[in-house]
Amino acid sequence: MSYETILVETRGAVTLITLNRPQALNALNSQVCAELIDAFAAFEADNSQGCAVLTGSGEKAFAAGADIKEMAEKPAADFFLGDFFAEWQSSIVKPTRKPWIAAVNGFALGGGCELAMMADFIIASDTARFGQPEIKLGVAPGMGGSQRLTRAVGKAKAMEMCLTGRMMGAQEAESAGLVARVVPLADLLEDTLKTAAVIAAMPRMAAMVNKEMVNIAFETTLEQSLLTERRLFQILTATQDKAEGMAAFVEKRKPVWTGR
Ligand code: CO8
C-alpha cells in the first residue's frame, strides 16, 4: 500500500511512522486511519522490526484530533452503523503486540490525545499540549479519551479536562503520569528513536510479554493479573533468550539474542 497521509521509514530495527497532514495539524481522517492500520500491521509482521515510534509532522501538532470537517457532514446513523472509532482499537491497539511509543511534538487533542494514549508510552516535547476538547463541539471523547485519560491522570484532572476542554501542558502531563518523559522539542525525535532502539534490541518475546503484562494491569482484577504475570514469567523461562541472558550474566559477557 502506498501512503498519502503518513510517512513510514525504518531506522535499523525501529519503524518511524509520521502523521503527515501538517496543513490540517495532522487531523485524523478515515484515510489516515486506513493507512495507520496498514503501517502498524506491516510493522507487526516484519521480524526485523522491534519497536515503532509514531509522531506528527511539523512543529505544531502531533494530531489536533479527528478530522472535524469529515465528521461535520456525517449522519449519525453512519457513525453508529459503521461503528466509528472501533477499528482504532481492534486493528491497531489489540493486534500490535510489539511495543510502540508516541513522540508527541505539539497539540495532541481529542482523537490525537486518544491516539497518543494508545501507545505503550508517550515521550513529549516541552511544547506538547494534551486535551479532550470534544465537549466544545457538542460531543465527547470517542476512542478512549474518557477512559485512558482517567486511568492515566485520575478522575479529577480527567473530569476537569473533559468538562472544560482545558489543555494540559507537557510538564503537568509528566507530573500527572500521562507521559513518561519531557524533552526539548529539538531533541524529541532523536531521543525517542534512541529509546525505541534500546527496546528493539531487547529479547523480542520478553519485550512483548513485558508490554502485555503492564497492559493487563488495566484490564482485570489484581488477583487475575498477578496470576497472568506469573504464568507469562514462567513461559518466558522456556525461551532460548532466557537461557542466553542468564548464561551471559553468569559468564560476565554480553548476551546475543535470537528472539526465540
Ligand atoms: N479537524 C480538521 N481540521 C483541523 C483540525 C481538526 N481536528 N484541527 C485543526 N484543523 C485545521 C484548521 O481547520 C486549519 O485549516 P485551514 O487552514 O484550512 O482553516 C488548520 O488545521 C490550522 O488550524 P488553526 O488555524 O485552527 O490553527 P490554530 O493555531 O489557530 O489553532 C488549534 C490550533 C487550537 C489546535 C485549533 O486548530 C483547534 O482547536 N483544532 C481543533 C481541536 C479539536 O477540537 N479536536 C477534537 C476534534 S473531535 C475528536 O477528536 C473526536 C475524537 C474521536 C476520535 C476520532 C478518530 C478518527
UniProtKB/TrEMBL annotation:
Gene3D superfamilies: 2-enoyl-CoA Hydratase, Chain A, domain 1, Lyase 2-enoyl-coa Hydratase, Chain A, domain 2. One of its GO terms (molecular function) is enoyl-CoA hydratase activity. It comes from the Bacteria. It catalyses: a 4-saturated-(3S)-3-hydroxyacyl-CoA = a (3E)-enoyl-CoA + H2O; a (3S)-3-hydroxyacyl-CoA = a (2E)-enoyl-CoA + H2O. InterPro entries: ClpP/crotonase-like_dom_sf, Enoyl-CoA_hyd/isom_CS, Enoyl-CoA_hydra/iso, Enoyl-CoA_hydra_C. CDD domains: crotonase-like (cd06558). Coiled coil: none annotated. Its EC number is 4.2.1.17. PROSITE patterns: ENOYL_COA_HYDRATASE. Belongs to the enoyl-CoA hydratase/isomerase family. Could possibly oxidize fatty acids using specific components. This is enoyl-CoA hydratase. It comes from Novosphingobium umbonatum.
